[in-house]
Q: What sequence folds into this?
């Protein structure tokens, strides 16, 4: 199964729910742009907003490298709330799984993302952020590829 998210340039909309510990789910929407250069480096920029909520917007700027013929990659992420983040990703047959950790963080925050391929133009995202051993927040959302 060939992946279109991350593996190909594109623009994706995000719509779903955000859940924090002891809180009710809130609506989340956003956009992700993926671009590649000829040296197997990708960039991915994501903006998340929380309509009908006072929660601050999130901005994520990824830069990563996938070596030819490999199914694993590494990335750096600048996150407007978490700060500097490092991570790794694995490309499976029907999923892309990412794990990351916040650099120099006293709270020992880390996270994970699983993107399940529903079709060429649709993925389902399930993600969580942890502080130490405790799950702090999760997101579940659909990603839809936008026409170019």
A:
């Amino acid at each position: 199964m060939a992946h279109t998210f991350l593996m190909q340039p594109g623009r994706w909309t995000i719509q779903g729910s955000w859940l924090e510990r002891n809180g009710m789910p809130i609506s989340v929407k956003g956009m992700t742009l993926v671009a590649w250069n000829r040296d197997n480096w990708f960039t991915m920029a994501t903006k998340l907003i929380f309509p009908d909520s006072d929660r601050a917007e999130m901005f994520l700027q990824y830069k990563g490298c996938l070596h030819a013929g490999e199914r694993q990659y590494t990335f750096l992420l600048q996150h407007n709330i978490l700060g500097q983040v490092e991570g790794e990703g694995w490309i499976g047959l029907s999923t892309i799984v990412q794990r990351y950790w916040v650099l120099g963080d006293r709270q020992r925050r880390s996270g994970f993302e699983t993107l399940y391929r529903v079709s060429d133009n649709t993925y389902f995202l399930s993600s969580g952020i942890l502080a130490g051993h405790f799950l702090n927040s999760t997101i579940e959302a659909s990603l839809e590829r936008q026409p170019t």
User: Anything to note?
Assistant: The first strand starts at residue 10 and ends at 20.
